[in-house]
Write a structure and sequence with these properties.
- The protein is an all-beta fold and 81 residues long.
- The protein has one domain.
- 0% of the residues lie in helices and 33% in strands.
- The protein has a four-stranded mixed beta sheet with strand order 1-5-6-4, with no helix packed on it. The chain has a four-stranded mixed beta sheet with strand order 2-8-7-3, with no helix packed on it.
- A hairpin with a 6-residue loop joins strand 5 and strand 6.
- The mean pLDDT is 86.
- It binds zinc ion.
Length: 81
């Protein structure tokens, strides 16, 4: 089990298709899967998605943290400038 820190969505970054998941309860991850990794908020470290497969955490997956209201995205690699 690894813990992966998500990243901030950039200002002006146009969302891809799909919505932003809202975490209603900071104590409960928005997503729960059967994979190896927990994904945590980049700002406060709250667990937003638990036991996820990497393939499930694509760039379409955005989660608004229930604790600090930061919108996180999963993919960390930056596109070429
Ligand atoms: Zn947070």
């Amino acid at each position: 089990m690894a813990t992966i820190t998500m990243r901030l969505i950039r200002d002006g970054e146009v969302p891809f298709d799909g919505g932003t998941a809202i975490q209603d309860d900071p104590e409960r991850p928005v997503f729960r899967g059967n994979g190896p990794d927990d994904y945590v908020c980049v700002v406060c470290g709250n667990v937003l998605a638990a036991a996820m497969q990497p393939v499930q955490m694509t760039k379409k997956v955005r989660v608004r943290c229930g604790r600090c209201s930061t919108v996180n995205v999963a993919v960390t690699e930056e596109p070429a400038a």
